[in-house]
Amino acid sequence: MAVGISFGFPLYYPHYPAPVYYAPPPPYYYAPRVVYSSPPVYVERQEAATERSVDSWYYCEQSKAYYPYVKTCPGGWQKVPPTPRG
Predict the structure, then answer these.
(1) Is residue 78 domain-resident?
(2) Using 50, 70 and 90 to split pLDDT, how confident is the model at 51?
């Protein structure tokens, strides 16, 4: 027989084991898909025809002017190499 003094709560608590929490099983993962594709294809865009990107200029002898300042040339266009402005 145990004799003791109590102040509203027992001095001896029966020891109960803490509840055991089990971790859920890890989710099932599928193997990653292997995707085969062709290598990338690079396409260069066409730049607008400027004086720097044009290989030749076209000169009209009758009007004494260059294309695009003159749109038509009755005698035909002469192909001339471009010359830089200076």
Answers:
(1) yes
(2) very low
